[in-house]
Amino acid sequence: MPANLLAGYRVLITRPEGSAEKLAHLITAQGGHPLKYPVLKIMLKDECPSMQHTLSNLSNFDLAVFVSVHAVRSFVAGLARGNKRLPELLKIAAIGPTTAAELELQDYPVNYLPLGSVNSEGLIRTLGELNLSGRKVVIFGGQSGRGILPEYLSEVGAAVTEVESYRRMPNPDLPNQVLDQWLIDGRRLLTLTSVEVLQQLLDKAPATLCDQVLRSDVAVLSERIAKVCVERGFSGQVSVAESSDDQGLLEALIACVRDERK
Predict the structure, then answer these.
(1) For FRET with 149, which of 8, 120, 190, 206 sits at 20 to 30 Å CA-CA?
(2) Spatial separation of the C-alpha atoms in residues 249 and 252, rounded to whole Å
């Protein structure tokens, strides 16, 4: 990939706190100027009774599914808190390569990754090759998930346990000067990684600046987010990442720039 494809662009990264570093590095390497504006905070729930109860009974499960890096971090913190270990026979599935990398940092081997697309549908395609009837599956995720994965697992006869291992909350300490800096005249790009982030951004932006936000070119992680962008009135270029990792989001940002230059 040629260098400096984002030169001259200010890129607003709206990911939760602690999740923007790698993307910011990739943007800088392409000559862009990343600005962190975490509209959400992540509260790990490694201490909560349901998490600790599940971790105490991990040996009862055949498969553990992790839907995000935050789920992994909560899981790891919960194991450490209770001085527990990962059962040797437990198989592990991750929603994508970034989540898998977080697991592998802990020396937890990942047995199953999505096939075709890095999302729940892709992971379902992978798990569809297994006989999960009668198997016990635990899903570590956040609140208000899409529900596609547990629904599928139940349909094929698995016994599913869902554990809310973290919670997303509005960030009360947003650096509003960052938003002001991003919105000054010039070339700007926006990243959106969930519908909830999109909604929070529009809620937090002053009414006088919302029109500028809606005119921005935006890189998103899914067609679902792109659809909501259109519904909420975005009029700029909306580029959907081909993969849900940081590299995919970077390439979607570059696609916005290329379309703008045509």
Answers:
(1) 190
(2) 5
Topology annotation, domain 10-39+173-261: Rossmann fold (3.40.50)
**Domain extent listing, the chain:** 10-39+173-261, 43-169
Q: Closest Cα partner for 123 from 166, 152, 89?
A: 152
Rounded-to-integer distance, Cα 231 and Cα 188, Å? 21
Q: What is the CA radius of gyration of the chain?
A: 19
Q: Is 159 helix (H, G, I), strand (E, B) or coil?
A: strand
For the chain, the first-to-last Cα distance in angstroms comes to 19
Residues in the chain predicted with pLDDT less than 50, given as ranges, are none
Q: Which pair of structure tokens corresponds to residue 219? A: 């890189």
Domain 43-169 has CATH 3.40.50.10090: yes
- Strand positions, DSSP E, the chain: 10-13, 33-36, 40-44, 63-66, 91-94, 136-142, 159-170, 188-192, 217-220, 238-240
- Evaluate whether 252 touches 245 at the Cβ level (below 8 Å): no
Q: What one-character DSSP code corresponds to residue 214?
A: H
Asked whether 42 and 16 are in contact (CB, 8 A), the reply is: yes
- Collapsing DSSP states into helix, strand and coil, what is residue 195? helix
Burial of 249 (0-12, 13-18, 19+ CB in 10 A): buried
